[in-house]
Write a structure and sequence with these properties.
The protein has four helices and six strands; from the N terminus they run H-H-E-H-H-E-E-E-E-E. By secondary structure, the protein is of the alpha+beta class. The strands form two sheets. The protein has a three-stranded antiparallel beta sheet with strand order 1-3-2. A three-stranded mixed beta sheet has the order 5-4-6, with no helix packed on it. Strand 4 (about 85-90) and strand 5 (about 95-100) form a beta hairpin. Helix 1 (about 5-10) packs across helix 2 (about 20-30) and helix 2 crosses helix 4 (about 50-60). The longest helix is centred in the middle third of the chain and has 13 residues, at about 50-60. The protein is globular. Bound molecules: zinc ion (2 copies). One zinc ion binds near residues 89, 91 and 127.
């Protein structure tokens, strides 16, 4: 994602293009999966201090540029639309977007208004699940 495109995004949402905002949003838009606070921190060069990053993430989320995804007890941030299921691996801790798995909309009783609905799964990702580990062979005796 080019810095110019990131700037346009910010301006369209009525946010000033400060350097921390441009860089943080750039990092998240470049990633194909939602990133945790510390993953974002690691990718920022130069780094932002925790408080600044926290504030930036808050501003971007409130402006609708980012969405918060809470899985496995940790909050991760992704670019706007994540209306699909997410999978967090218990072994490597990585959260992946399951874009082909839509979030089912339950039928609610009258007068309930849903603001948010998330489908979060945990278990072993393809890289960590023993069945699909390519180098493991069961040897005969
Ligand atoms: Zn894994
Ligand atoms: Zn997602």
């Amino acid at each position: 994602m080019e810095a110019e495109a990131v700037r346009t995004n910010l301006t369209n949402c009525g946010l000033r293009c400060t350097d921390p905002r441009v860089r943080t949003l750039g990092v998240i838009l470049e990633s194909k999966r939602p990133l945790s606070h510390s993953e974002i921190e690691d990718r920022l060069d130069p780094r932002l201090d925790r408080v600044t990053l926290y504030r930036v993430l808050n501003d971007l989320t409130e402006a609708g540029l980012l969405c918060r995804i809470t899985t496995g007890g940790a909050t991760r941030y992704g670019a706007s639309e994540h209306s699909h299921a997410h999978f967090t691996c218990d072994a490597c801790g990585i959260t992946t977007c399951l874009e082909t798995v839509p979030v089912p909309t339950p039928r609610l009783p009258d007068h309930y208004v849903v603001n948010e609905i998330e489908l979060n799964l945990s278990g072993l990702c393809p890289g960590c699940s023993p069945k699909s580990r390519p180098n493991v062979r069961v040897r005969g005796l």
